[in-house]
Amino acid sequence: MVAGLVLAAAAACGAVLPDDDEPLADDAGAAPPDAGLADGPTVDPAPEDGGHDSAYRAAVMADDPVAYFRFEEAAGAGSAVDEAGLHLGTYHGGLVVPGFGGSARARQFAAGSGPVPVASLDGTDTLGFAGRSAMSVEVWLQRSGAAQPETCVLSRYGPSARAPANAGGYRLMLGGATLRFERERADNPFELATPPSMEVGADAHHVVATFDGEHAVLYVDGGEVATADSDVELAESDQPLLIGGCDAPFGGTIDEVAVYAYALGPARVRAHYDAR
Fold first, then answer.
1. What DSSP character marks residue 69?
2. CA atoms of 149 and 251, how far apart (whole Å)
């Protein structure tokens, strides 16, 4: 039931999902985890030595995320588990590959797969951050091959249910060698980007974007790379959080996605990176 609602929400947001006549690794009516085969070949996962007790997971959980997806599910799983226990993600293709941050597995997105939409298990919206609510998003990412056109790493962005003219939201984007964090409305755009002198290369990177109600900060690999003031007030929205794409799939691997209802401080960001 939840998975079906998530798929409908993803379609409403404009997410690109596989055609109905294409075989899916994990469709909206997928069986419980580990049933069936993944869409296409998979990379053998790393040994299960990161798993539940990794130092990285302990560091993240110590900071009380409102959502935390480790993508530890095996190939063929239909659902992505939220370590915080508040949400459920739904897989729409993608490959299982070795993970980052002490995890055994991660999810690789490419053409033919869709993003992972996230739904609340109890109907409570803990991921909207309307008004000037403080927030943080955290992720490990690695692009596939050469620099690519910009797409979403994660996104909660779209028409507002209450005021369509104030469409917007927040999203983390990667285009070429530039990362951007947007937290904006149509009538009040705001973005924070890595500086021109910094290139986000093809290696794996730890990325955190925070907002404390007044200031936004972008961190890469444990260090602050950009900061700016912002007065944007987000409208309430009925859009889902999408991991691994928005209007096009992210071209690369994503792991250890965490969302917080406050701004992580620089010491904690560094502690997470050091726990990898």
1. E
2. 9
